[in-house]
Amino acid sequence: MQPAPDWVCVNGDWLPPGLVPAGTPPPPPSPEPAGCTIRDPFIGIPGLIGICVNGDWIPTEYLQASATVRFHAAELGWVLHLDDGRYFVPLGGLATEFQVDGLRVTFTGRVRIDLVSPLGAIVEILEIN
């Protein structure tokens, strides 16, 4: 006899909800509700890359650039000054070895139009040298 309506019969034994019998592999993790379920559709378009926001892909600029690292004392933050005159705040900051005022770097990244900073536009750095 089933002890409660939500109990499950496994190999002749009744198990309460959520109990996994020994030797049963755990179920795969369920996708996060806000996650995108398909690949970035913009990855093959030159100059674009996608950002997953609330389960949808939005296009943004894919940067491959040279820049000068600058420390903005008033805002206490590191900023990348690109050769084309634009500047970007690295998402999550810069690794210690790149925190040198005046250092020349090359990097790839995606502009995060979904985030804002008082220092300027934000870039998610994918690779930096």
Descriptive account of the structure:
By secondary structure, this protein is an all-beta fold. The protein has a domain at 48-128: OB fold (Dihydrolipoamide Acetyltransferase, E2P) (Beta Barrel), CATH 2.40.50. Helices cover 0% and strands 43% of the residues. It contains no helices and eight strands. The protein has strands at 8-10, 13-15, 48-53, 56-72, 77-82, 87-90, 104-111, 121-128. The strands form two sheets. A five-stranded mixed β-barrel has the order 4-5-6-8-7. Strands 1-2 form a two-stranded antiparallel sheet. β3 (48-53) and β4 (56-72) form a beta hairpin. The protein is elongated and about 75 Å long. Mean pLDDT is 83; it is low at 26-33.
Question: Short summary of the structure?
Answer:
The chain is mainly beta. Helices cover 0% and strands 43% of the residues. It has a domain of 81 residues: OB fold (Dihydrolipoamide Acetyltransferase, E2P).
* Broad structural category: mainly beta
The average pLDDT is: 83
Q: Count the helices. How many?
A: 0
Characterize the overall form.
elongated
Which regions contain 5 or more consecutive residues with pLDDT less than 50? 26-33
Supply the CATH architecture of the domain at 48-128.
Beta Barrel
The CATH topology label of the domain at 48-128 is OB fold (Dihydrolipoamide Acetyltransferase, E2P)
- How many angstroms does the end-to-end distance come to? 67 Å
Oligomeric category:
single chain
Give me the side-by-side strand order of the main sheet: 4-5-6-8-7
Largest sheet: 5 strands, mixed, barrel
**What share of the residues lie within helices?**
under 10%
Number of β-strand runs: 8
